[in-house]
Amino acid sequence: MALSLLFFVTYVLCTRITAEFRGPETSVNPEDDGSDDKEKAKLRSVLSLIDRNGDSNISVKELSAWTQKSMRTFYRQEADGKLSALDTNKDGKVSWVEYVKGAENRGGFTEKQERRDSKRFEHADVNRDGLLSRDELISLFHPEESANMFGVIVEEFMEYMDSDNDGLLSFREYKGKTADTGNTDEHSAKESFKRLDKDSDGKLNKEEMKLWLEAVNTSAQANNQAQRQVQLADDNKVIFRCLV
């Protein structure tokens, strides 16, 4: 959701500037107070952050890099907020006791949720000191961003999706938790299953499921979305003009 919002804002900004700067000439309004020029200046300043090489175009690479940087800044700010809220002894880290206390203050969680979060907490604690730093909190709340979290998340998927408990996901099991829940249609489910099934044995093992996590992290999503947005915005499918 956040990634889509960022790209939507970028697209709107770029298309608006393109229209304003490249549209037909109009007569000057004597009552114009200059507010449009101020707004354009603000838009230029935002887009200059994305246009790293200063060529007045936004490329896929630039849009992807800007989005990744923006999202990771958001993750750090989010983690700072959680750290401030959960770190009751103010030692700059969050213990499991503090984490549980924070959950209780928000209404608590079920035994299953506590067991799940306990495993995530353990894997996020990279230095094994029993405490989570800000960066480790990012891993806890955004496990797709950290390769060391892939194993525990795949285990969660298997527990939820592997109905016959054979340690593998058939297409039926995979589809049952994707297409049938409205997350995607059956055709898309077949295509994604085929891409993940690297050994073409008709089932997904845990290593193949990790590939899915790699495909949904910020870097991969930012690049995919940037390609789509540039393709939508630019006739030549390579770059779109935002500044003149």
From TrEMBL:
Regions that span the bilayer: none
Residue span, EF-hand domain: 38-73, 74-109, 112-147, 184-219
Region annotation (Disordered) ranges: 177-200
Molecular function terms, GO-annotated: calcium ion binding
GO cellular component: endoplasmic reticulum
Record's protein name: Calumenin
Recorded superkingdom: Eukaryota
Record lineage: Eukaryota, Metazoa, Cnidaria, Anthozoa, Hexacorallia
UniProt xrefs under Pfam families: EF-hand_5 (PF13202), EF-hand_7 (PF13499)
Keyword Calcium: yes
